[in-house]
């Protein structure tokens, strides 16, 4: 079980900080969704979360239908620093891979040329891909390959991702799958951040008291101290990861988890069932949540919480004409009325509700 001081720090985290921590513990990647008007503020908040909370370098790529593979490769690279231990005496072996850049701002560059030199570059710890769903298919495939292989091929070299690596697909204004099929299925969790939940790190960064909306958009600059003394250290993340591996699951709770999967696969509004990758991620997230709550075992409530984060971006709502009861003569208009406004969140709440899988006492 984690120390009480660490649990207290985890409980003080915001929703975005907690989503980031979960992904770093699981060594997986995530989708973060918000309203279109809040997207720029969310980008800056995530930059501050990376630097201030976890001491990680970051890079931002603003995707569009015109984004090329060179744009993508160029944007995710940051300038590699090589300070000596005498120049940075407080650095430790554990946090050495957290500090990969001397420029504590996000990377946003023009298209890369054939002569672009990447020899002194390295992939940033946290990649924030704004509007990734708008990028061409080949760019999304490149993003998937980066997540899977933890490396990217440039024109002159092969760049490997750092030990602490997180890819955040930042989307706006939508529900359900919006990325290419395999990329969407590979991403670990999804989280919706409502603008009214605030941007605590960004609000703290501006000391003049102006509202965020009235401030000229610019990247807040992080200090070197924020890299060297993050709120959540590499050692603490590693401890939480080890504890998650040892979290136990009772037979009854495991049965509840399997029932949720079965109910999702057979729900009349679900078009393509749920994948084996989603089931694997479901189990992994449930184990990761236990130490964050100061537990050495997985509870039914943690299973339900994991289901909401794992399946929200994976569920396809069936088209009325393809709904299974149409095979037995159901009225199409009645099915359209039934499915009108029905989304992935409604499916999950159905499965977790009184008419779905029964939670063990």
UniProtKB/TrEMBL annotation:
Entry's Gene Ontology molecular function annotations: magnesium chelatase activity
Enzyme class: ligase
EC number: 6.6.1.1
Domain called ChlI/MoxR AAA lid: residue spans: 264-324
Pathway(s) this gene product operates in, as recorded in its UniProt entry: Porphyrin-containing compound metabolism
A Pfam family assignment: AAA_lid_2
InterPro entries: ChlI/MoxR_AAA_lid, Nucleic_acid_metab_PIN/TRAM
UniProt-listed Gene3D superfamilies: Magnesium chelatase subunit I, C-Terminal domain
Name of the molecule in the record: magnesium chelatase
């Amino acid at each position: 079980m984690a120390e009480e001081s660490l649990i207290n720090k985890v409980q003080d985290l915001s929703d975005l900080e907690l989503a980031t921590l979960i992904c770093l513990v699981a060594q997986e990647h995530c989708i973060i969704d918000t309203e279109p008007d809040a997207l720029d503020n969310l980008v800056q908040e995530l930059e501050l979360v990376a630097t201030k909370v976890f001491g990680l370098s970051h890079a931002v790529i603003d995707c569009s239908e015109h984004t090329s593979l060179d744009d993508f490769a160029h944007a995710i690279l940051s300038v590699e620093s090589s300070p000596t231990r005498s120049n940075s005496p407080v650095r430790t072996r554990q946090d050495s891979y957290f500090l990969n850049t001397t420029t504590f701002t996000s990377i946003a560059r023009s298209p890369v040329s054939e002569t672009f030199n990447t020899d002194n570059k390295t992939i940033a710890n946290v990649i924030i891909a704004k509007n990734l769903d708008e990028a061409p298919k080949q760019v999304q495939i490149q993003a998937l390959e980066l997540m899977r292989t933890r490396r990217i091929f440039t024109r002159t070299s092969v760049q490997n991702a750092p030990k602490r690596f997180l890819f955040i697909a930042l989307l706006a204004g939508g529900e359900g799958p919006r990325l290419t099929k395999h990329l969407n299925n590979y991403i670990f969790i999804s989280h919706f951040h409502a603008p009214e939940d605030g941007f605590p790190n960004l609000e703290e960064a501006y000391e003049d008291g102006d509202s965020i909306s009235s401030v000229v958009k610019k990247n807040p600059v992080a200090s070197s101290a924020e890299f060297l003394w993050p709120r959540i250290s590499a050692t603490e993340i590693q401890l939480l990861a080890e504890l998650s591996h040892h979290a136990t699951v009772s037979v009854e709770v495991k049965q509840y988890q399997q029932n949720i999967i079965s109910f999702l696969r057979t729900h009349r509004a679900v078009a393509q069932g749920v994948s084996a990758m989603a089931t694997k991620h479901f189990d992994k997230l449930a184990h990761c949540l236990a130490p964050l709550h100061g537990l050495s075992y997985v509870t039914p409530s943690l299973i339900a919480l994991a289901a909401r984060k794992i399946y929200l971006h994976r569920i396809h709502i069936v088209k009325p004409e393809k709904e299974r009861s149409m095979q037995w003569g159901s009225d199409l208009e009645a099915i359209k009325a039934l499915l009108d406004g029905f989304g992935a969140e409604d499916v999950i709440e159905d499965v977790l509700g009184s008419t779905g899988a029964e939670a063990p006492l």
